[in-house]
Each structure stands twice: as C-alpha cells, then as structure tokens.
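Annotated sample (chain length 73).
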Amino acid sequence: MEVVWAVLALLLMAGLGILMVFEPELFWKLEHFFDVKDGAPTDFYITKTRFLGVLWTVISLFAGFVILLNRIF
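Output written by the structure step:
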C-alpha cells in the first residue's frame, strides 16, 4: 500500500513539473499573489521555472522508476 501512495505522490510531482514547464506564469501568480498588482514575471523567472519544472519531472519519474524496479526485483 505504501508503494501506491509513493507512486501517486510521484505522479503528482511529475504533473506539477510538467505544469511548471508549460505554465510558468501561473506559478508566478501563485507565488506573488499578495506582493504585486498587475505585474509580470521576467524572462529569467520564466526560464528558471521551466528549467526547474523539467528537473522536477525528471527526478520524480526517475524515483518512480526506481520504486518500480525495487518492487519487481
């Protein structure tokens, strides 16, 4: 049962990573909701968020693969 929860958590992490790649502006709005009015993220922020999204997705998929291999063997 723990494996099921781990896989679900990793799928959620991968989904968030993919969302970070394709919608970095959404994360900027969530992060700065109370700080800025009618502001816009910089190109650096968008690039950084996309890079971290790719990294987050790759790490979560790798962790899921390791869990799957550990479960099989």
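Annotation: The chain is about 80% helix and 0% strand.
Annotation: The chain has a mean pLDDT of 90.
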